[in-house]
């Protein structure tokens, strides 16, 4: 239509020159200047015109400062298409038509060249307003880019809003989750057993399980025989917890061993944690499930002092700090191996004074700390009061089992959406299934439930549930369970992941803001320091990117902005960038996923909480 309106009469129509599109494309790349283009067209005219011909080919150079007729018609159509819709009956319409600017760079090269001669001969027919608007054509690429950028931002903002909206959906638990909640069934207590290496943790757990009938005489006899054969007769009870060949050969616990027993008040899950400093990451991963803790201390001279660390930090101190950072408020201090100090009251009082001061500095309340002198090897003060007169003459308090029953039952919340941090993954290649183990923090779970596996974002179906090695149909908040999943690739399930409600996925982050307490460190923390961050069962390499501020220890207010370094016992706000991604939530949203621990050079250097998610992972 544009060509019919602006076409020349037949006697005015010049003969067209045959110019290859490839040639024009190559020449156009050489320069973007209008003057150069005119020179090329003049040269072409001389080249393609025979010297014996009397007529000349009139090829007018294309003028880039004015739109072609095709541009005008196309922009008019586009403007009409993009014109804002006006309600019926309205007599006003917007005159802001900008469609013309988006057309220029979308025209093919041959259309531009074909329309150039027609437009040059009819320049006087173009309206003044059109020629004035033609100056904006040079800005067309930038305008289009800006529009695309705005669209992208709008899309991202809508996606973010939709994600936030889905996370803020009013969750209502189903009836089956709340059923039987008031019945008089024993509450589960996850009890972490922690302390310095060789303080007798595994022996204490094994002896306690044997006295409560959880280890058969046959199994105990087998352990005693094998221990004597390897010259480690005193390890017989410890081998009830340390089952792997490497643990038995080295004589130390390397992973968190799990065992169960029933007390008068609780169904207790024992979490026997490794005490060696090389396996503190395993201790963090396992003991983070704890509701309460037993801190085992070796009463013998020199061993207690080694656990306290002297000038450095021993595992007695480190474990106490970590346990408090897990949110554990109730702790039982089991002063073990009292038989090696002749059940001395003076030694017990000395340990209570020294360690008590440190526990107070870790924010343990004095009323929440129980002190129990005992001997696991001699079976003194474990499940009954002490029979040795050297102990019973000055101690008339609880035995260890009674102290466990004196703990306050933990609060369970089944009304919140499902949340199960994955501690371990077991893959069965034979049946093609994958099972995850961990503590159910919130909500409830039953067979055939749909769950979302993060960070992969895959849906899976719960096939079976085991609690305390026994099959069950329903598990609720606080239970330690093994959940068998179907409908998911085993490669998409990993320790440190999370099972959650399909409509309420947890956040996956790659950059975090933390509020930390620096522990007793020698090397200060600087911007750029490489650390290992632990959050629930996840661990990831990270780097300190910013030290935002120092905080006053008492008031918690900012005392200094942007310090250069952080030293021992300082509180601060920092930013860390993770090499990968972790499932995490702000501490104010979910405490179970909002605690963080920083380690470097084999030691825990800081503990803290997640205050803000700075960058979400893909």
From TrEMBL:
Location of the region described as Disordered in the Swiss-Prot/TrEMBL record: 114-169
Keywords, in A-Z order: Cytoplasm, GTP-binding, Nucleotide-binding
One Gene Ontology molecular-function label: GTP binding
Sequence similarity: Belongs to the TRAFAC class translation factor GTPase superfamily. Classic translation factor GTPase family. EF-Tu/EF-1A subfamily.
Lineage per the UniProt record: Eukaryota, Viridiplantae, Streptophyta, Embryophyta, Tracheophyta
Function of the molecule: This protein promotes the GTP-dependent binding of aminoacyl-tRNA to the A-site of ribosomes during protein biosynthesis.
Species whose genome carries this gene: Phoenix dactylifera
Keyword GTP-binding on entry: yes
Compartments (UniProt record): Cytoplasm
Keyword Cell membrane appears in the UniProt entry: no
Protein name in UniProt: HBS1-like protein isoform X6
